[in-house]
């Protein structure tokens, strides 16, 4: 029997991992947005936002996956459950979050709603979600028009700016989920009237089936059914069984079909008289658009709530699979009284005990809450992602054929890809699709809670139905062939370590596939064979003076400091991986030798070919023109700091166990003394000798840190900026092909349209690169210890060890979310409602990036996602516990 203690949730994880009980079978796998995605785009020009806009979403059946608010589904998204709300004034039921498409926001796509993921255990045995829903009419048109009017130099027009929350006229809506068993979910919806007057609210818990039957696919003709009965919905599916949703009180059951309303959208007959928007039109307009027989493929329980000011009204629901695979129904599966209360109380107590154990007793309560909300965002960010690219390119038998250009257009080289998996997404609304380098960072934090899931995620992108046959790892659905930084090996090593460092099968499986990927990089991105790498985009959207993923404005090659640093780091990660494996299988010594030497060649080339600028003490990208001219692009950006991350330590104890490797290193240093600066430094530490392998030698390290740790350049009160503040007064400009290309310091949103203008690497603070640089400082600190102290901050006259510097940088990043001495959280910027109102102040948004001077959150607002790395920073400082498979032994 699982009891209410830290081991209860760990026991559920163990049962799920062993296959004993499928605790992960149901989860928050329903996306916040499926409209405006590449998967749903069948347009001629690839204009996804225009082809399937928000206005179509309530009426148009999705081809690939569904969306909804506070939603859950099974692992194959056979069924979906989500929340619908209507305040009696809006033109539509609130079934999904509203925001600007990429072409409408003045800084690209941007959601215009306020909701929070407050809690989730790794098995989703307990989850909590909150939303603030205006009582007055939602200003859809005002937000669209004003954001469309504003230019890139103006701030975004947010929902709070419209005045719709004045006088607290909103509903605070919370949804709690608690599992009685893997397929028995207790659901509590609580709506609180925050306004000064009595108000009414329509609440529509909605159950539906993903449409798999309308596309004319052989073997997919079966149509499941949902029937309304009394205060319940009974859903039957041939592969799922019978699913029952029952509610307390006296709701009205409503049913329609998850089919497109072709009449509304295109003026032609559709497949069903009672289409997807039937419940919406019936509730909002009183139309006869729900099936009077109360049957269909989409159903809702319609509640009408009335509440006095400050009153809270509760709805209880239970969603249960009553006869999976013919097994008997559980005892009292639809209890909404005492049994319901016990499940809710027990699962919350389990979650409290679990997270208390993870963060440790010494963690301050505010930081413990940051960890818990960030973890919730990570868990709610697990989404069902379905995309058969071959089918998408060819079109469906029952649909109009796609435009002719599709076969040679977006993702046409990735026809082998066939995805139908639960994947960790960067942001469930703004980026509801996987991004390979984002996912690597997610997995490092996920491994602290669910290492098996983290390992599965890393392996998934290396499987043959994801990885390209040529060895490239897919980037993201907008362009699978784009090039993201190669951080998969780094993440795999961190996950391996966080899981206890014993799963060598996992490490070996990852390494075999990454050998293919490393070879792809060398063959495709080192065009001149000189160990310098181009790479292109590399995740840092607008960091350079021109678009690095497009053709150069002049004939030549751009040799990228960050591309070369990423590959040096990649070589070291594979070296570290091969060292781990060689302890158990000596054959990996040969591979270790290969990556030791390859790292030396890459690191040495950065100096030989002048990526290092000695006078400026910085690494720069270099443009080599076909005419022979060399143009260093003297932008002091994170591009020039990333070489610090290409660092590792090899101990004498390791070399003693691997004599062939030790012999080869000795030979290499004897015969190739010119590489001594990058592989030759040694120090005695703790009774053994450490060898430093680093793209940055000791002399260069000190000089780079003089810039990186200066408040006048990279050091902010809230971490490290991505561009030196010196470029505020001294922008960099290069004149090429009759055009000036300029980079200046922009600490907030981007004023450039590169990559849609919805992110900015020209000054803001980004967690992933900060995290890598903090890690690098810790490794340097382990090597130099007290032998090296640096002025920190530069200009202060104070000197600190590199380990102390890393700790302080961590604290600066954590401070973005903490209340300062005045009770203000930097993440909220100058938004007084969030700073001063207790109903908002403790609800944390985890933004994509942060203002380089103020720490205010910018970009995507639910980027947990890699901003969840704040969890690792807190636990590293506080010594919090890791969830590993060995933690219960």
Automatic annotation (TrEMBL):
GO terms for biological process: oligosaccharide metabolic process. It comes from the Bacteria. Transmembrane segments: none annotated. It holds the Pfam family MGH1-like_GH. Residues 431-534, 698-864 form the Mannosylglycerate hydrolase MGH1-like glycoside hydrolase domain. One of its GO terms (molecular function) is Glc3Man9GlcNAc2 oligosaccharide glucosidase activity. InterPro entries: 6-hairpin_glycosidase_sf, 6hp_glycosidase-like_sf, Glycoside_hydrolase_63, MGH1-like_GH. PANTHER family: GLYCOSYL HYDROLASE FAMILY 63 C-TERMINAL DOMAIN-CONTAINING PROTEIN, MANNOSYL-OLIGOSACCHARIDE GLUCOSIDASE. This is Glucosidase.
């Amino acid at each position: 029997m699982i009891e209410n203690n830290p081991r209860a949730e760990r026991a559920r994880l163990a049962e799920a991992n062993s296959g004993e009980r499928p605790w992960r079978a149901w989860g928050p796998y329903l996306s916040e947005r499926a409209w405006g995605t590449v998967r749903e785009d069948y347009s001629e020009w690839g204009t996804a936002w225009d082809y399937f806009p928000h206005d179509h979403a309530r009426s148009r059946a999705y081809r690939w996956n569904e969306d909804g608010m506070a939603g859950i589904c099974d692992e194959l998204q056979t069924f979906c459950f989500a929340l619908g709300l209507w305040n009696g004034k809006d033109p539509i039921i609130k079934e999904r979050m509203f925001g600007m498409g990429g072409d409408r926001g003045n800084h690209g796509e941007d959601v215009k709603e306020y909701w929070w993921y407050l809690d989730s255990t790794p098995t989703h045995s307990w989850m909590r979600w909150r939303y603030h829903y205006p009582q007055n009419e939602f200003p859809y048109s005002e937000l669209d028009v004003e954001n469309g009017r504003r230019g890139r130099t103006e701030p975004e027009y947010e929902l709070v700016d419209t005045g719709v929350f004045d006088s607290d006229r909103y509903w605070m809506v919370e949804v709690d989920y608690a599992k009685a068993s893997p397929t028995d979910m207790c659901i509590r919806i609580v709506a609180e009237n925050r306004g000064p007057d009595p108000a009414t609210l329509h609440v529509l818990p909605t159950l539906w089936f993903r449409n798999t039957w309308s596309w004319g696919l052989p073997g997919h003709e079966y149509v499941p059914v949902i029937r309304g009965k009394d205060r319940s919905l009974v859903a039957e599916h041939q592969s799922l069984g019978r699913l029952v949703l029952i509610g307390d009180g006296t709701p009205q059951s409503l049913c329609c079909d998850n089919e497109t309303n072709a009449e509304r959208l295109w003026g032609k007959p559709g497949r069903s008289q009672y289409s997807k928007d039937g419940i919406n039109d019936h509730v909002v307009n009183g139309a006869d658009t729900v099936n009077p027989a109360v049957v269909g493929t989409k159903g809702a329980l319609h509640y009408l709530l009335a509440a006095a000011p400050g009153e809270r009204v509760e709805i209880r629901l239970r969603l249960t699979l009553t006869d999976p695979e013919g097994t008997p129904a559980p005892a009292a599966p639809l209890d909404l009284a005492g049994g319901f209360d016990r499940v809710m109380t027990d699962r919350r107590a389990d979650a409290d005990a679990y997270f208390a154990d993870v963060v440790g007793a010494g963690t301050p309560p505010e930081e413990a809450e940051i960890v818990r909300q960030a973890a919730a965002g990570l868990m709610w960010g697990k989404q069902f992602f379905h995309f058969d690219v071959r089918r998408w390119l060819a079109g469906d038998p029952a649909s109009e054929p796609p435009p002719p250009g599709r076969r040679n257009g977006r993702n046409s080289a990735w026809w082998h890809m066939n995805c139908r998996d639960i994947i960790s997404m960067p942001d469930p609304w703004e980026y509801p699709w996987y991004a390979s380098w984002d996912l690597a960072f997610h997995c490092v934090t996920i491994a602290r809670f669910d290492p098996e899931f983290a390992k599965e995620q890393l392996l998934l992108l290396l499987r043959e139905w994801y990885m390209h046959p040529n060895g490239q790892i897919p980037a993201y659905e907008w362009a699978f062939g784009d090039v993201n930084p190669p951080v998969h090996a780094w993440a795999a090593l961190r996950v391996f370590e966080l899981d206890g460092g014993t799963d060598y099968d996992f490490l070996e499986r990852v390494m075999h596939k990454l050998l293919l990927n490393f070879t792809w990089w060398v063959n495709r991105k080192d065009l001149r064979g000189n160990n310098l790498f181009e790479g292109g985009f590399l995740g840092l959207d607008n960091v350079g003076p021109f678009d690095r993923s497009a053709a150069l404005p002049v004939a030549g090659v751009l040799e990228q400091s960050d591309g070369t640093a990423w590959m040096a780091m990649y070589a070291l990660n594979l070296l570290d991986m091969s060292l781990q494996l060689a302890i158990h299988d000596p054959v990996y010594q040969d591979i270790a030798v290969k990556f030791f030497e390859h790292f030396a060649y890459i690191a040495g080339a950065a100096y030989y070919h002048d990526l290092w600028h000695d006078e400026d003490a910085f690494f720069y990208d270099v443009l080599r023109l076909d005419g022979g001219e060399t143009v260093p692009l003297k932008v002091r950006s994170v591009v020039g700091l990333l070489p610090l991350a290409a660092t590792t330590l090899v101990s004498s104890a390791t070399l003693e166990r691997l004599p062939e490797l030790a012999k080869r290193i000795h030979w290499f240093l004897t015969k190739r003394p010119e590489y001594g600066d990058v592989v030759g430094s040694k120090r005695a530490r703790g009774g053994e000798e450490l060898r430093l392998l680093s793209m940055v030698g000791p002399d260069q390290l000190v000089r780079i840190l003089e810039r990186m740790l200066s408040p006048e350049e990279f050091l902010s009160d809230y971490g490290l900026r991505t561009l030196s503040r010196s470029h505020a007064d001294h922008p960099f400009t290069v004149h090429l092909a009759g055009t000036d290309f300029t980079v200046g310091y922009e600490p907030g949103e981007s004023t450039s349209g590169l990559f849609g203008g919805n992110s900015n690497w020209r000054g803001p603070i980004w967690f992933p690169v900060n995290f890598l640089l903090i890690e690098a400082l810790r490794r340097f600190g382990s090597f130099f210890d007290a032998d090296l102290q640096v002025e920190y901050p530069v200009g202060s006259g104070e000197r600190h060890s590199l380990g102390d510097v890393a700790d302080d940088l961590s604290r600066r990043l954590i401070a973005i979310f903490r209340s300062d001495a005045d009770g203000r959280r930097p993440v909220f910027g100058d938004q007084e409602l969030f700073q001063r109102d207790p109903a908002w102040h403790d609800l944390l948004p985890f933004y994509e990036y942060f203002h380089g001077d103020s720490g205010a959150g910018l970009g995507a607002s639910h980027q947990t996602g890699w901003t969840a790395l704040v969890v690792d920073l807190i636990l590293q400082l506080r010594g919090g516990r890791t969830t590993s498979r060995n933690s219960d032994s």
